[in-house]
From TrEMBL:
Keywords: Glycosidase, Hydrolase. GO terms for molecular function: hydrolase activity, hydrolyzing O-glycosyl compounds. The lineage of its organism: Bacteria, Pseudomonadati, Planctomycetota, Planctomycetia, Pirellulales. Residues 615-771 form the F5/8 type C domain. PROSITE patterns: FA58C_3, GLYCOSYL_HYDROL_F2_2. Transmembrane segments: none annotated. Residues 625-651 are annotated as: Disordered. This is DUF4982 domain-containing protein. It comes from Aeoliella straminimaris.
Length: 931
């Protein structure tokens, strides 16, 4: 009889917290435990803990949890019984009928437990799994529990080993491909066994295109590998547009009887990296347009769900993505199946660091043994997938040349590469790096390629290793909150205007180490030797809420928010990555009751090269990509100055930062002022102070006539504990953007207060502009976006008409919405399968009487889901929201929220969904459930 693989995900019982030893036993009464279905993440239901660390999502993932399941295995004592876990967070101990049958020491890794010696054949058995996340280290939300699938494999004593079929295509041409199938067969019997391995290759249509058969002898209690090659004529290549998949079916016979069989999927393709020209697939250069994806699925948590993952990938692919990096861990196996099918490359990454984030608690000596043990499972599991094109052994790991710490050394990287290449010599082995200086050490010598994170840090490596390929493994790390806009625009990538804990979605904000998307587009155009970029990140994820680590629970890095709703920059990427697909996207929304008469910049993301913007039918001009608007001139340059001490202050307005006006007497309120010689609009003041200013405070005052002064900025002195106005190399600098303040002035004065004995009033440069002076850093945005910076807000209709090569490609409209009157439901799918895991993602929007989304609506929604489905989760993408993902009430955020509905297993009846909000028409929806 052939072996059998059983779904083992149903009818589990779960209890949180430590349990007595008897919880491992069959007799234990678990009737009070919760009934759960695997995959299960015990922490995603919360509650959020406001005081807990934002870095790991403020959710209760730390602790112990127990799972139990009863099962029977038919009588027949020569069976082998295995439990195959795709991932358990973390440190699982698997007990069968009270006895420890196996355990694993890395929460992201798939593993097999041999249950055979503990099984009572023909009787009831119990498996109990103890899970303990307390020692698991994480820089993000890891989830908790048996969060990936489990299978039970029942096999003959002679069977195909776990992940025992390995298919490669050693030679590929248009007329023929060689397919090599290596089959590892385990023999658990006490005598040698002759066997016969028959392989059938089928093409993507299911036609048999090659067969092979070979004999072998598996020694008693041993293993044999049967290695055979076949030809496939005129192979249909796997590529991004045509992800053609072949199958190899393996049947093992012994003494004329079929003892085991399995079918694996593979692809026929060639790829290569060229250190000077980038990445090639089937002989053609492919620009990798990649994203990093963490393993959580937003409101569904870490519990893997195939449809939720497929949806993420579909959204990414629609944007133009052709590659993902599984940052920073082994993904669920289904991720690779999906990418095989969808034509998406995978940078398959095994670890973040090699410390507690890899569950290595045993220190430096354990780094290599731990890595080798995990890589063995990792590579065996994933090596048949055509989507996998890189094995990555880590991310941003420091060096530890002498191996006294847990960092990179020559020996460790050599050891890891050797382990991988013995299991698969068809893919390069690399790592994600971040410290250019590390190339001083020969640690990278063993690796085939490296990825570099941010800021063109790969430059040093390229000098040191001109013959090794490079990828941009993390780019951008732009931060934003969907639907949130702050004024005036950011003047610096790290100044996060608005101060509400949300980050403006004008896509001008990043972190100190990272950049806005446009910089990376430019870099990838210039550096063709780089295979492509992997943006940090495709989706927001739970945890790591830089730049608001204390208060928020989820990241700001995503191109798409945590609820799965695209942010503005989704359209920026799409416009650039899919130049032939129509994208015409306007931002911001157009509901600014308190901005009437104020400058409210409008950006358009389009694949067109120019566009004309209309406000209430009036043209606001046409903009063309690549045209950087001229910078305003400095009104203060060489203008007359006055000072409190009567000394000359020319040095403060001479355009030279190396000279300064300096008032050396301590105390008092020394000031310097410039006379613009006529009353002018003042929209921006840039101030560069000298170091000797110390921690003084200062005020900026303006006047039309030199007698009547108003204060436009008052900066407190810097005191211990306060951030004050900050220091920078070369002295403090500050920019005051007054666009919203309508300042008209002839005189501008800087007046110091609280000068300590050691401080001097010291102004290197005072610059005054009548229009916003945007830093040169943002010039590149004009190449990829169309920007109207000076639109004076009035409610109504914004319309943009976009052109490409002179021809109109389309138009787009953004209207001021009236008060929300009803809710609109837009499901991604209206037909589900009764599998108990099929999902419909229903976008909920508050709309006005005309159907415009009300972008400021934050009303509380309540949900009712009945019939053949249930509420799986709800979220709204607000990084600061601590509302439960599993409640039947949840607020809208900036007009939107996402409701996730799941079919019930075996129930073939429609799902009725009703969503309500006070004062609005409720919305209803019916979803069909059928086989
Ligand atoms: C990188 C790191 C990522 C993430 C990212 C945020 O340095 O590799 O895991 O933390 O920064 O920008």
């Amino acid at each position: 009889m052939q072996g059998a693989v059983r779904d083992f995900n149903h009818d589990w019982k779960f209890a949180k917290g430590e349990q007595p030893d008897v919880a491992r036993d069959l007799q234990f009464d678990d009737s009070t435990w919760e009934s759960v279905r695997i995959p299960h993440d015990w922490a995603i239901s919360g509650p959020f803990d406001e005081s807990a660390s934002g870095s790991t999502g403020k959710l209760p993932w730390t602790g112990v949890g127990w799972y139990r399941k009863k099962f029977t295995v038919e009588a027949g004592s020569d069976r082998r019984v295995y439990l195959d876990f795709d991932g358990v967070m973390a440190f699982p101990k698997v007990y069968i009928n009270g006895e420890l049958a196996g355990q694993w020491d890395y929460g992201y890794m798939s593993f097999r437990v041999d249950a055979t010696p503990h099984i009572r054949f023909g009787e009831e058995n119990v498996v109990a799994v103890e899970v303990d996340t307390r020692r698991h280290g994480s820089r993000w939300y890891p989830g908790a529990g048996i969060y990936r699938k489990v299978r039970m494999t029942i096999a003959n004593p002679l069977h195909i080993a776990h992940w025992g079929t390995f298919v490669t295509t050693p030679s590929v041409s248009d007329w023929r491909a060689t397919v090599r199938v290596r089959s590892t067969v385990d023999n658990h019997s006490s005598s040698d066994r002759e066997l016969d391995v028959a392989v059938t290759i089928r093409d993507p249509e299911g036609n048999v295109v090659a067969t092979g058969e070979k004999r072998g002898i598996a020694p008693a209690e041993g293993t044999v590998e049967v290695d055979q090659q076949m030809f496939v004529d005129a192979p249909a290549r796997w590529d991004l547009e045509h992800p053609n998949l072949y199958t190899a079916e393996t049947i093992v016979r012994s003494s004329g009887e079929v003892v085991d069989g399995e079918t694996v999927t593979f692809g026929i393709r060639t790829f290569s990296f060229d250190p000077d020209r980038g990445f090639f697939l089937n002989g053609e250069r492919v620009q990798l347009k990649g994203v990093n994806l963490h393993h959580d699925l937003g409101a569904l948590g870490a519990a893997f769900n195939q449809r939720a993952m497929e949806r993420q990938l579909q959204i990414m692919q629609e944007m133009g993505v052709n590659a993902v990096r599984t940052s920073h861990n082994a993904p669920a196996p289904e991720v690779l199946e999906l990418c095989d099918r969808m034509g998406i490359f995978v940078w398959d990454e095994c670890f973040d660091k090699w410390n507690a984030t890899a569950d290595n608690l045993a220190g430096p000596e354990n780094v290599l043994p731990m890595a080798v043990r995990q890589l063995d499972n990792f590579v065996r599991r994933d090596r048949n997938h055509p989507c996998v094109f890189i094995w990555s052994v880590g991310n941003e790991i420091g060096t530890s040349v002498d191996e006294r710490g847990d960092g990179m050394s020559f020996g460790r990287l050599e050891g890891m590469r050797t382990c991988i290449r013995q299991l698969d010599d068809t893919r390069p082995v690399g790592i994600g790096c971040h410290t250019p200086n590390t190339v001083r050490y020969p640690v990278y010598d063993p690796l085939d390629l490296t990825g570099w994170n941010y800021g063109r840090r790969y430059a040093r490596y390229r000098e040191a290793y001109p013959n090794n390929p490079i990828l941009y493994s993390e780019s951008a790390s732009t931060v934003s909150t969907r639907g949130h806009y702050a004024f005036p625009l950011a003047n610096n990538k790290t100044d996060y205007p608005g101060g509400t804990g949300h980050v403006s979605s004008y896509d001008l904000s990043a972190t100190s180490w990272s950049d806005i998307p446009d910089c990376e587009f430019q870099l990838m155009e210039d550096d063709r030797f780089v295979g492509g970029e992997f943006v940090w990140t495709g989706f927001d994820y739970l945890g790591e809420p830089t730049p608001n680590r204390r208060d928020a629970r989820s990241s700001y890095f995503g191109i798409v928010d945590l609820a799965g709703i695209p942010k503005d920059r989704y359209h920026l990427y799409r416009s650039h990555w899919r130049p032939n697909a129509k994208t015409i996207h306007i931002l911001p929304h157009w509901n600014w009751p308190d901005r009437i008469g104020k400058k409210t910049p409008v950006f358009v993301y389009t694949n067109g090269d120019s566009a004309e913007l209309f406000l209430n039918g009036r043209s606001l001009g046409r903009r063309t990509k690549g045209v950087v608007p001229p910078k305003p001139t400095n009104l203060a340059a060489a203008k007359p100055t006055m000072t409190s001490d009567g000394a000359s202050a020319e040095a403060a307005v001479d355009g030279d930062d190396d000279t300064a006006w300096r008032h050396t007497d301590s105390g008092g309120t020394p000031w310097v002022q410039v006379d613009l010689q006529e009353v002018q609009p003042v929209e921006q003041i840039d101030l560069a102070l000298g170091d000797s200013v110390g921690d003084a405070g200062y005020a900026i005052r303006v006047s039309r006539d030199g007698t009547d002064w108003s204060t436009i900025a008052n900066i407190e002195p810097r005191t211990a504990g306060s951030r004050g106005w900050g220091r920078r190399a070369g002295g403090p600098r500050a920019t005051y953007d007054l666009t919203d303040q309508n300042v008209q002035a002839r005189f501008v004065r800087v007046e110091f207060t609280d000068l300590s004995d050691k401080s001097t009033a010291d102004v290197k440069e005072l610059k005054i502009y009548s229009a916003r002076y945007e830093p040169e850093y943002y010039d590149v945005t004009y190449k990829y976006r169309l920007r109207w910076n000076d639109v004076i807000y009035e409610p109504g209709e914004l319309k943009v008409v976009a052109y490409k090569d002179g021809a109109k490609i389309g138009e787009s409209v953004m209207r001021t919405a009236g008060p929300p009157t009803s809710l609109r439901l837009t499901p991604d799918r209206t037909e589900l399968l009764p599998t108990g895991e099929d999902l419909s993602f229903i976008l909920v929007e508050a709309v006005d009487a005309e159907g415009n989304v009300a972008p400021l609506a934050n009303d509380i929604l309540t949900f009712q889901v009945s019939g053949g489905g249930e509420l799986a989760a709800v979220s709204n993408g607000d990084q600061l929201s601590l509302d439960s993902f599993q409640d039947n009430r949840h607020p809208l955020f900036n007009g939107k929220a996402m409701l996730i509905v799941r079919s019930k297993q075996g129930e073939v009846s429609p799902i009725q969904v009703t969503v309500r909000a006070e004062g609005m028409e409720p919305a209803t929806l019916s979803i069909t459930v059928s086989q």
